[in-house]
Amino acid sequence: MTQQNAPPDLTTYSILLKSCIRFRNFQLGKLVHRKLIQSRLELDSVVLNTLISLYSKCGDVDTARSIFEGMGNRRDLVSWSAMVSSFANNGMELQAIWTFLDMLELGFYPNEYCLTAVIRACSKANYSWVGEIIYGSALKTGYFGADVCVGCELIDMFAKSSGDLGSAYKVFEKMPERNLVTWTLMITRFAQLGCARDAIDLFLDMELSGYAPDRFTYSSVLSACTELGLLALGKQLHSRVIRFGLALDVCVGCSLVNMYAKCAADGLVDDSRKVFDRMPAHNIMSWTTIITAYVQSGECDKEAIELFCRMISGEIQPNQFSFSSVLKACGNLSDPCIGEQVYGYAVKLGLSSVNCVGNSLISMYAKSGRMEDARKAFDILFEKNLVSYNAIVDGYAKNMKSEETFLLFNEISDTGIGINAFTFASLLSGAASIGAMGKGEQIHGWLLKEGFESNQCICNALISMYSRCGNIESAFQVFVRMEDWNVISWTSMITGFAKHGFAARALEMVCKMLETGTKPNKITFVTVLSACSHVGMISEGRKHFNSMYEVHGIIPKMEHYACMVDLLGQSGLLVEAMEFINSMSVMADALV
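The chain above was modelled as a monomer; its predicted structure follows.
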């Protein structure tokens, strides 16, 4: 056009700018803007509004605001909506709300686009009360029922600002019209905020309403299955995503990898790896998910490091989460040498100052027994959070440095960061490590004062502390008063009874645990088999050993075989013990 001396008009410029926004080619958009300035055309509100959107989308809010303020009386509802949206999308929530109020004062009546933008700004906890006022206004004016986007933003506002899923669900129920995005959003927020059962129920309601789930829906409901440990349902969903051609999607694939890793019996990651290997393409999210799965399995840390090396040998650059996971693997292996190389790479990429990387470095040194280095890593953290303090406190506790543990506890109290259940659990571990029951009882008093007495994690730590300090009856009293028990609660109590010579009570607790439907883990079975060995209960020991794989799907490890050999040997059945060793599926080591 320009080569034929036919200069573009405002309409042409407007179309060009909108195309640049649509294809996110912001540099070209800025070039078009410069040409527009050189053309000396008098800009109308349509072009100016498009320019506000262009600079807003590329994060240049100052230029967007300058254009907006220079419009004067040419500003219309689209201009105001674009500016409110610009502030809301670029982390300037208060400016978005003030701009919205200025617009109302000037007599402009908001449309659905403007409402969704200002509601998005109210998703920050400080401004949720403004969002509730706008919600009332949307109900009165009819915009709530007229546009699905307004309802979706309100759901998100209640969920993000205060985790108020009750109010979010009320909005969802009131919406006269829902689409797939609405259903998926509500399912996702349920899954993300600890209401996994509600997420699955809503997913079933969605299907009954005739909506076909997409990749985002399946990803969220698979996460809910993971949270609840519903492997059977997860497998059914897996077969469905295969049938609908969604299994190769990275988002769905990551959810499947995570589900199989966390729900698999005995922490096996074979199924997770199969899903990962079948994915046609990988991004940083899929690599980090499989690396994390190997680390969390408890016995595949070397494989996690190998996967990390494979990832960085390709074109994928690690992020802070992949660094955090592989540093945890190094800590589990007590291999600070590799960990320091990994951290060096994080420094090179400018990620060493990120909290989760620094916190994992502290834990790595602590698990390797290098508390001086752990303390240095803690001290150089630019911004310490509660996880940072918990990591160093836990490190001191596990390395039997109780004095430093309690000094740091006082430091946390002085910072005003706050203390959570994990902090108290670490303190109790520190008291137990030196047999300081008096200190443990003092911490118990703090817990009652802070309102943590019903916390499951805390109660488990109390059981362990009292048991390790020799007060098994106090441990049992804590257990009895608990509102809910998990496998750790039961195993801690069974271990306590077994170690204090109450094998019969330990085995009685096992029966009660199984009656409640709690699934034992491999640590539970080590304790149970040890208890059987102490009292020579051969048939009971055999029964529990055989049930490991046949009933619970747990593959026996060397420590389980050692307990059985000990049971048979102490009962004088040496020939049977030798036959048992020869029948083992793994080569016996020094433990056996």
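The radius of gyration is 30 Å.
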